[in-house]
Input
Amino acid sequence: MFTRSEKLLIPLTKPANPDPNGAAAIQELLGGKFGEMSTLNNYLHQSFGFKEKKKLKPFYDLVASITAEELGHVELISTAINLMLEGSVPEGEPTDAPLEDAKNLRNTHHTVVGGGGHQVMDSMGHFWTGEHVFSSGNLVADLLHNFFLETGARMHKHRCYQMTTNQAARDVIGYLMVRGGVHQAAYALALRKVTGVEVTKMLPTPNIDDAKIPEARKWQEIGSHRRLYTFSESDYGDVAGVWSGPADWADGEELEVIKGVPEYAAEGPVIGECRSLFSPDYAPEEIYEIAAQLMQKGGISPLQPGDGSHSRFQGSVPDSPGASAQNGRKTTPNPTKKK
Ligand code: MN
Ligand code: MN
Output
């Protein structure tokens, strides 16, 4: 089973401007064949179907630990997409066609289906499918598959990084490059322990040093490229049987297993409402007020209704609680509308 924390794996701030076509491009890193949905579900289902996990505990613990991290990666890339979509369509009267420009965006589902939110699909609009999951019951075949999956994922991250200068996207991609490198190395190390074969002799693929990417280098500088997290205080510690010894990709420094979660995890930004997309709708003032009263009555939160400092209240409309959250953020200009 899993526990959940209301934190993102890394601190993330809102990008200065909406970037809906950038969001459409990095959908590949969420729902593409080599995206985070694929890494998550491959390891998740391999761990569920793992044969002789007690006898093979270091290998089981490796797949299980990385599974938990991948769930956090799905959350990170989804959040980046949502931050890039925020404010991408203007508010306005329905008769003025405020969504007119959205028909020219790369991904129409973001607006029509998602209400300004991510979709579980790739950058070409194909929904993610369980056909991307390889779980063979054979340890070596699965490990080799996972190594290849991380290799492809890393290549796609480097390509997507070059497709956008949006800072939220680059912050997430830079981190995922480093963590993907760890997973690639971990599966290679596991294969070496089982078979003696050094698949890392095929590295680097692609031949790009993460250290050249500022958003990746900063994670290397704090040692994230040598650490594996168990995402559990009590379980999966036998992953150290695989993840230990000197790292030849980190100047021979020691690999580390961290019990629990990364210390840099932090609460993420709140995504605001969009009234022209009916999000969150009902009667907006009324549901914000209802929620505030529920928290007050239940003694859940010490905050008062209308206290914008509380993350749950942040919105974009001047008379809604927490209106200040959206200040300073621009929406996409409407190029088809003559001024
Ligand atoms: Mn990942
Ligand atoms: Mn990975």
User: Anything to note?
Assistant: The radius of gyration is 22 Å. Strands lie at 227-229, 256-258.
